Amino acid sequence: MADQTIPVTVLTGFLGSGKTTLLNRILTEQHGKRIAVIENEFGEIGIDQALVINADEEVFEMNNGCICCTVRGDLIRILGNLMKRRDKFDQVLVETTGMADPAPVAQTFFVDEEVQRHFRLDGIVTMVDAKHVALHLDDSDEAQQQVAFGDVLVLNKMDLVSPEEADALERRIRSMNAMAKLVRATNANVPIAEVLDVGGFDLKRAVEKKPTFLEPEYPFEWGAVFELPEGVSTLSLGEGADDTMQVVLVPVEGVAEPLKEGPERGVRLWTKGLSAVKPGGLVEPERSVNLDVSSGKPTTFQVRVPRAGRWMLLTEHGGEEYQVRLGTSAPVAEKVYGGHEHDETVTSVGIHLEGEVDGKKLNAWLSKLLQEKGVDIFRMKGILSVKGEDRRFVFQGVHMLFDGRPDRPWGSQPRSNNLVFIGRKLDRAELTEGFRRCLA
Amino acid sequence: MSGVSLFKKPVRRAHLLDAWRFAPSEYPRGLAFDRHGGLVALGAADGQLAVLDAVTGATRWETKLPDSVSTLAFSMSDDRLAVACFDGKTRLYRSDGELLATLPGAKGGWVEWVAWSKRGQLATAQGRVVRLWTSEGQPVLETPPHESTISGVGFSPDGSRLITSCYGAVRLFPLEANAESRTLSWKSSLLSLTPSPDGKVIAVATQDNSVHFWRLASGKDSEMSGYPAKPTALAWSPDSKLLCTGGGEVICGWRFVGKGPEGSEPLMLKGHEQGVTKLVFSPEGLLASGSLDGDVLMWDPAGDPKPIGIAPLGGEAAELAFSPDGGLLAGANGRELVVWKVTRV
Q: Distances from the Cα of B2 to the Cαs of B6, B156, B239, in angstroms?
């Protein structure tokens, strides 16, 4: 029954981001699918083989106890009419207006059982104008929501930006939405398969896609691998904007991929027994320390290196900004982590915890969280290891609505919990701690 | 006349005997008997319009509209059939098939609702506007645009008021000088506008899985919530004493007697295995229900809370209608129209 539902793709993005170009491509390209388009901006689309329905976006409030629960009334009505035909469509595309909040569209598929019986929300595709998005993100809630809600973010008009600008944009977008698939495009030339049949709201698919949507997010911004002799090496930091700089040194000798493995080791030590070190003081390896850099001038510290080999230094703030040096030679490798350069109001918080959660505690925590913060939590997804349950518990939500169910058995796979929140004003420490308390 | 149902001899069984079947060329959209009970009109999603002999099923006349039929209705005072279409127009036919008028609408929007008044006036709803026409297709009036798309249209029983519903409000427009205009507000998406036959109560279903109703005399309104699904199937008994509502498997009947239905236990009619999609009353007060489970059940709500008749429809009920005398019941699933003769034993 579930497989007979017709997939619905929502196409969102600011005016001029290339929505219409993509829509026209989807409609004209030979893919053998019969598509119904529900269009909200009176566009120039006139394609014979597709049914194009013009509609006003009618956002209706629901009286179901969720203060932020709104649905698209026009969509319920139009989809209700589309299902009353034997000659079914293979795909429905909903184009939103440039300034639309995607939440009511997504919530429509959680709230209306009639719509659920015949259709499934496959994914939200957000077109991003690479040249102008920075401006939009700075002063528009809608632009932030559109990025936050996207299952696929098409960074369009890449020909108009430099490779450096493109990388910076990608980092910024990624910090806001860690679970979306990013696709770079020029003239909306993204492969159709990347935007249709996304499975963004498919709980089973969420499990398959775990590695991408749970791209690690680290509390440090920079890491570098150094070749160090046994003994004491000098760590020097240049002028910076902050009073303290948290760092940790981890061994990566003999490690195949130090830029991946190093941060994994570092993140485990990051919050354990943090101690303060004065200028000139001694930094112990594999200990998270807070360096005093309040003088505002270049500062040096001593680092104890118990054995010769490769070590990785991870720093809270940008290594380039502080001109971090360790020992006498340049780093063998270095990497920038996270995208903290723009302090976004919309962010992603990913939580990974080993162990099993207590179902009751989790339910109580989630209910309270969604009641208090549901307005600010745009989307969430998770795969949980619930005590007493042999199967993975997968769930996802939009604002205060959520849907979860047991999925495949864990089998011999190690049990762990992964969840991602995307939203506004999210407190990473509070969310992580709240979830930690749900552990059985 | 009140209290008649209490003394009525309970019906033991209602048999539904297959009379005839008809296969439309696409999904059925709109089903109605004419006022004499001699004709059945059926529309379809490809624009097919078939008018059939109610007794034999023979095609009396047939035509093809340029786009999907959304709904249709026979006048109860003239031999007129109104057919609403996705092409934005409403076609007005004489019962013998002659096209009397093609009523224009705004470009690009579906005409979604049509209704006839007892005085023979026709209301058509397209987008946010309702237009009123004479039985010859002459325009009478056009409402101002509503704040959202019209979700239902109807008339008071005497035809003195036009009634509309949309998000947040039911509105009554006076069609004669001394009638007042009224707005009944309820902040919700209002569906399935269903005035009671005596004109005293207006009931709607809501997107919030509830039924809301207003008593026009006092202006008092009530919200009946807790339905497992949108209760979009609403039907009043002919005596206006029972409002049957369906959304889930159980049909819930609200009794408008005494101080009820507020604070009273509803009548629960259990028999369907899946959600109820259609409810219709016969003039004698028998209830027929259609459901996603593919069965049509018959009930005597004044007697037994158990079904008194059953007939397989073979697919989810898309349309359901009684003939004016209650002697025939027509039901359509996605592929086929089935007409039964109703016999009571």
A: 9, 21, 8
